[in-house]
Specification:
Chains A, B: InterPro entries: NUDIX_hydrolase-like_dom_sf, NUDIX_hydrolase_dom, WH-like_DNA-bd_sf, WH_DNA-bd_sf, WHD_NrtR. The structure is a homodimer. The first copy, chain A, is α+β, with helices and mostly antiparallel strands. Chain A has a single domain, classed as Alpha-Beta Complex (Nucleoside Triphosphate Pyrophosphohydrolase), CATH 3.90.79. Chain A is built from 5 helices and 10 strands, in the order αββββαβββαβααββ. Chain A is globular, with a radius of gyration of 22 Å. The relative contact order of chain A is 0.15. The interface between A and B is large, with 63 and 62 residues. The first copy, chain A, binds a DNA duplex through α5.
DNA sequence: CCAAAAGTGTTCCAAGTACACCCATGA
DNA sequence: TCATGGGTGTACTTGGAACACTTTTGG
């Protein structure tokens, strides 16, 4: 039980082992989906603008019982972080639906939770629009604009993940992970608007994503609604793999 | 020793503790500095274009003795990751010189190093130009363009850190962490060129960073060299704190 | 024929790039 | 006065925002 670790060169003493036992590593995932919101009856007005939602479960036990937490749990010895994230998520949603999973930062404050130390590696997960996964009874989607009281530092994790998602919507094709396989520009516009938190112009969205070859028309059209209107062209994302589309926003290398 | 962990809800069994002992957490830091290169005597030609260099130490012990590794080491129970990074670095360089430290991704493959599992949290560190810190004998600066054989996955970490640095030079003021306190535009140009790996135009660099209020003229000028030339205006970075300067490269929110 | 929704064309503007030309200095 | 390096002026280009206008549908 004594000796120098061959890799790091640190000593494996009784004290180290004891202190080490008390440090565990957990994974936390902020899973987002753009979801049509249930009707708000404010004087009969029904809102159907979709909102960005995050998957949370309600703690039944102390500490912080009654508050809402991100899905996650302990990292096992034989799995890496993405595998662990997927495994933990499988307890809350159908992981088949997960179209994107990406590591965010690590929260390592020794005091971040009461009791023994827990280091948290956080992830951003995305689920596309039409999916309606089954949820356990303690689990629900919450609009990010109206978050409930949250456990520990989980609120910070959610904010962090939102910021990252918004940034990536601008310079990558990450929208594919939120949108249905095929969609109209106005559907896509409402998805981007929900995820970014501000109004996005459908005309410009079409042109920007088209010019970058991020979306491609399928050639088919969607039938108009009851009230008429021109039928909308259907699009799909050109790649279903994550891709950076606008690498050099500024200070690009010389042309030659 | 048995029971349910109050936070994560997982069981603390003998098996869990045993497997847990064998998992440790280390910090690895890729520290960069733009350094004037020692003279290359290729037929008498002396090159003095500075290059981006990374701080490495040579392993004296197996496994992989003789290969070069990033500074770092084990995370202690009472410190968070940035503190640990600074502490580990202090064994190799004067941490006072460190102007930027930022977390990159976690390497969590259970097999990433031989022997017991070691999870690595990686960091990007920056040291400004004029600094010439003392180094231990096993430690040296290596140009990123000519890296020696490196230990484990450390090469990947360095590449990752370079990519991140290059990206951030474009849309943040992170250059302050590589440049001297005061500098001429042509000095800054050579720093950016070295860090980005391609030729940067001094005229445009001045205009871009000036327009964004990233750099400010001090009002003073630097004396010209032996061969004459107009004296150069001195600049400094407006903020010495990390700041995002070009948040919305595309898909910016509406003006009103 | 009108309202509604989708798509196109046009103008404007911000921001970078490229490069010619002007300025200040030492020998 | 000239070579040298620094700074400015300007024309070009890219790409996104805004908005008017046209197209295609249902009632």
């Amino acid at each position: 039980m004594r000796g120098v670790h061959p890799i790091s060169g640190f000593r494996l003493t009784i004290e180290n082992v004891k202190s080490h036992i008390s440090t565990t590593h957990e994974v936390l995932v902020a899973v987002f989906q753009v979801r049509p919101q249930p009707i708000h009856r404010n004087g009969g007005a029904t809102s159907d603008t979709p909102e960005l939602c995050v998957l949370l479960w309600e703690r039944a036990l102390d500490p912080m019982s009654g508050t809402w937490a991100l899905p996650g749990g302990r990292l096992e010895p034989d799995e890496d972080l993405p595998d662990s994230a997927r495994r933990q998520l499988a307890q809350k949603v159908d992981v088949q639906e997960l179209t994107h999973l990406e590591q965010l930062s690590v929260f390592s404050d020794p005091q971040r939770v009461p009791g023994n130390r827990v280091i948290a590696s956080t992830f951003l997960g995305l689920i596309p629009c039409p999916a309606e996964p089954e949820l356990p009874t303690d689990t629900a989607w919450h609009p990010v604009a109206r978050l409930p009281e949250m456990a520990f530092d989980h609120r910070i994790v959610v904010d962090h993940a939102r910021t990252r998602l918004a940034a990536k919507l601008s310079y990558t094709n990450i929208g594919f992970a939120l949108a249905p396989h095929e969609f109209t520009v106005s559907t896509l516009k409402s998805i981007y608007s929900a995820a970014l938190g501000y109004h996005v112009d459908a005309t410009n969205l079409q042109r920007v994503l088209g010019r970058r070859r991020v979306i491609t028309p399928t050639g088919t059209t969607a039938p108009p609604g009851k009230t008429g209107g021109r039928p909308a062209a259907m699009y799909r994302f050109t790649d279903t793999r994550y891709r950076v589309t606008d690498e050099f926003a500024a200070l690009r290398p010389p042309a030659d």
